[in-house]
Structures are given as C-alpha cells and as structure tokens.
Amino acid sequence: MGVAVKLTAILHHQLPPQLPNILSHHHKLNPLSIPRKLTGNMSCRCASTAAAAASGEVIKEEEDDQVLLIEPLEVDEIKGICSKWEWRGYTINYLKYEGLNGGDKLSPPVLLVHGFGASVAHWRRNIPTLAQTSTVYAIDLLGFGASDKPVGFEYTMEAWAQLILDFLNEVVQSPTVLVGNSVGSLACVIAAADAQNSLVRGLVLLNCAGGMNNKAIVDDWRIKLVFPLLLLIDFLLKQKAIASFFFERVRQRESLRNILLSVYGNKESVDDDLVEIIRDPALAEGALDAFVSIVTGPPGPNPVQLMPQIKIPVLILWGDEDPFTPIDGPVGKYFSSLPSQVPNISLSMLQGVGHCPHDDKPNLVHDKLVPWLSALPSS
Predict the structure, then answer these.
(1) Structural element, H or E, at residue 163
(2) Is the pLDDT assigned to residue 87 strictly greater than 90?
(3) What is the spatial distance between Cα 293 and Cα 213, in angstroms, rounded to a whole number?
(4) Which UniProt keywords apply (predicted)?
(5) Which of 84, 123, 218, 365 is 20 to 30 A from residue 93's alpha carbon, by CA?
(6) Which pTM does this prediction carry?
(7) Percent of the chain residues past pLDDT 70, beyond the cut
(8) Neighbours of 331 (CB within 10 A)
(9) Are 92 and 148 in contact (CB under 8 A)?
(10) Nearest of 308, 270, 210 to residue 18 by alpha carbon
C-alpha cells in the first residue's frame, strides 16, 4: 500500500495541504497598518542570498527574531462565509474576503486558485494577510472542495481556465491578480495567456505544474523511470472496482498524512486539521470520478508554449524541496530561466519549502508577494 500511495502522489503533481496555527508576517508590512501581535520566540526573519539553482533569490529563515502574526481563518469560519456561483449549470463554491479595511484597498483584487485535492481552505493562512491591502477571492475548482463534482464530467486544464475567466468576468468584474499553486498555477497561466482577456492584472505562480498530471513531463528521467507504471495505473484506475478500492485506501487519514509529509518542508504544518481539509471533499459523491478523470485524462497545454504569450507582471515563487516539480526538473528549470530572458518576470527560491509554499511557510511567501502586489503599476 505504501508504494501505491507514493505513486499516487507522484502521479498527481500535488496533494495540497493546509496549516492550523498562526500566520507569521514580517516587519515589511508595518506601513500597511495591519492589526497584529508580537510573539516572543518564533523565528522567521527573511534574508536574501544568492540562489545556486536559479537566477532568483533564496529566502531562508534565521533565528532570534520576533515575528508579527495575523491569526488565520478557522475552517468553520471559511465555510460560513463562502458563497455559491452558478457556472454552466454547475455550482461553484467561492469566498470573498475584504478584511478590516473593507473596500478601501491599495492593491488590485486577488483570486487564489488551489491545486489538486485542495480547496478554498488551503489558503486560510494567507487570506487575512492579503486582505489588508486587497480584496481577496478564493475559488473551489469544479471537482474539488465544496464545488460540484459531476459524474461523467471530463476534467481538463482548459475547462478550469475558462471557469477562472468567467469568474473574473461575472463575479469580480475588475482586473485581478491570479495566484495559483501547482495545477491551479497552470490553470492561471492558461487564463492569463488568453490574448483577448483584459481582466488578469498580474500572475503569481507557486510551484507551477507542467500539466494536469505527470504524463506531461516525459522528458524528466524520474518520470521516465516510472512512466510504464503510470500508464498501467491509468489502465487500472479506469476499472471501477479497482479505482474504488485504490481511492478508498488513498483517502484514509494516515495515507493522506504520509503523502502530505512527503510534500511539505515544514512537517509541523501537517496536522489533523490539514488532513481533514483534504479528506472531507474526497468523501463527497463524485469525488472518485473527478480523481480518476484528472489522473487519467490529458495533461493539457504546456506552460513552455504559453508563458511567452504573457506580457503582464509575473511573480514566480518556488519551494526548493518540492518532490513533484523539483527545481532541477524540466518544469523547474524552465521557470527558473525566465527572469534572465523576460523583464516582466521575477523569481524567488524559497529554502526549505515544499510543493505548497503558501501553506508550508507562508511568511516567506508574504514577504515577497505583498510588496510585489503593492508595486504593480496602476493600470
């Protein structure tokens, strides 16, 4: 069973995670008048050093510094303030959060797009911080979270990208910064690459995936080693009885915990709350069909072909301990090469961080993301 669980994790680029404690924030946010409190012993002062693996920065933690904290949203609180939006006959779950400053925001609105297996709640440690300067939206992609999971639906990256664009057009109705993790990042890339679209103001990619599943990354030697096995798993998962047995084992708490521990650099982030955030939607009707369709479906557009079409500002944040899209793999190498070639793209490597930086060590992400948002051009 351990092998099957690990292969499932590899197959999916990402089983996203969540953290329960408190949001750490850095002194840079003092001018933003953020309500917060001091803690005594926590360490998280961010220092910049040269990156060895990429032409960006390495952000690392240092000890003996005070950390300014903002309380995260509770999972039940998130559920209570979410809304529903009808998209092409399906119900989509989303959150709008404005924080204490209401509609008086200094930065453009942001839309947070989760990765595989996650939901709006995956951003609970980020929403309160970002809401100090931006109106924050977060969405459950079709097939995940509290959004519909229609039986027989063929999930594609293009469908998710269109959902994002329609959400911007119908709900946000304002130029918006897209912030995505893993396959959520790729969906945002596809949406931003739409030449006719004027509603995407900026793009933030957190360990962007190369496809909806790892069949897209055939030029990585690690994938080549297991590629025949991936095809076999595809075949087996299309057998209903086998898929049901496999999915039931994967969504067990300890199986999920083991997968999440392999994904996160900060192991303390993997607690009971996180496991339930991932597990609860997997128990819903239609979750198995979504799981099989995504794992066995087409990987979707390649970001290498899409990124040259994107002229808006782009911030890339990459955890250097990502086991799914490692910085030395083909996808990581491509994204790490972009800042030296394209002026609208910047990159920071985050040291000791896994596949989901925003939840793994959110203070490192905020120290880069918040100033970047505030520096976006006014139009």
Answers:
(1) helix 157-167
(2) yes
(3) 10
(4) Hydrolase
(5) 365
(6) 0.80
(7) 73
(8) 27
(9) yes
(10) 270
